[in-house]
Amino acid sequence: MPAVNQSIFATDFKDQPYWWEAFRPQAITAPSLPARTDVVVVGGGYAGLATARALADGGVQSVVLEADEFGSGASTRSGGALSAGLSIGKSFTGRTLDYSPDLVRDVVGWAIDAYRALIDLVEQEKIDCHLEQRGRFLGACAASHYEGLRTRFAKLRDGGATDCRLITREEQREEIGSDFYHGGMVFETAGKLHPALFYGGLLAAVRRRNSITLAGHCRATGLARDGEGWRVSTSQGEVRARHVVVATNGYTSGVTPRLQKRLVPIASHIIATEELPPELIKELCPKGRTFSETRRVLHYYRISPDGKRVIFGGRARFTEIPGELRAQLLHQSLVERFPQLRDTKVTHTWQGNVAFTYDALPHAGELDGLHFVVGCNGSGVSMMPFLGNAMGQSIAGRLHGKVPFAETELPAIPLYSGKPWFLPVIGGAFRTLDYIDEKIR
């Protein structure tokens, strides 16, 4: 383990999400669980809360089980970026996936619908979460990656995406204050928000609906068939339900073993910098966009809602690591992209789990009689509330058509039992391949 450079840390450095300065996880406990309910939702993140909200609006009672405090999971730990696009064709294994043209069109359409639905949700529930629609720049980390973006651009256009355009290396300074990339692609239908304030607003909307029981610090410990319904065992007793919706994503456990074997939890790490001068912020991010890149070990970043800090995230490692090491690795990557931030200090660092699927797509559907909404693959801010809402409407009998992705099979992962033993190996291989692409090819 490398020695940690203590000079990068601000005096008020915290190993916790910067977002929690505005909204902290809530300790909401139920006095007791009802003996029966219509639906038990396992997981109190974006997907779980959106499912419960849609059920309530359809006259269906639900109990939402959250193993910890509400808001302690990945929903308040993300970078807060959102877009009307998914990473089509890029698997966590490094495989290049070839989807059918019909599926590409469907996925592009669902991603656009999810983005628009999030905008509508924020307006309907009057959620103050610093929502901005400024677009996203996807940087090509090597010349060969830019050629790959040309191919991706053609597929997206053929699939109906009209909001994207290629940016040459000569043009990229108009988008980002860095010479690190070899050009890239801009997506105009993209934006950012404060993920914890958005979560807090969604939680408040759920609490306004009387037919929802929120049970925090209540871990699901077992699921068993009970006639045509389910018997759900928890750390606070049993509850029977007609339906169960699993919305645990990157925290899916052995309680649902067949789902666990189809999801790979990968740690995502983030830092927040100290406050920076306005002119430097303008240089780094002239158009207020969010940023991502084509590396296998990717990074993503943005300016904070108050316009004063850089929020910089990525896969410092593919697994959880200590806070100071996490901060140092991300600070090094930040400076690699923005040398002008060499002396900038870190005030916060945090981490959370993202769920990846073998086909690199989100999924919502039914497996062994259990409903599920899982597999955000890094696009959870807009996609998880969208799919949760669709699942809730479907169970309530109010959805016109099918739940998006319900007719795509959630594939099993070869040689995987639910414990991601291979992540350090994949992480090391990806870093080597990224080095070859950027330094040799």
Detailed description of the structure:
- With 441 residues, the chain is of the alpha/beta class.
- It has one domain (6-440): FAD/NAD(P)-binding domain, CATH 3.50.50.
- Helix content is 28%, strand content 24%.
- The strands form 4 sheets. Strands 2, 3, 9, 10, 11, 12, 18 and 19 form an 8-stranded mixed sheet that branches. The protein has a 5-stranded mixed sheet with strand order 1-17-13-16-15, with helices on one face.
- A hairpin with a 2-residue loop joins strand 18 (363-367) and strand 19.
- Helix 2 crosses helix 8.
- It starts with 8 loop residues before the first strand and ends with a helix.
- Keywords: Oxidoreductase.
- Residues 38-391 form the FAD dependent oxidoreductase domain.
- This is FAD-binding oxidoreductase.
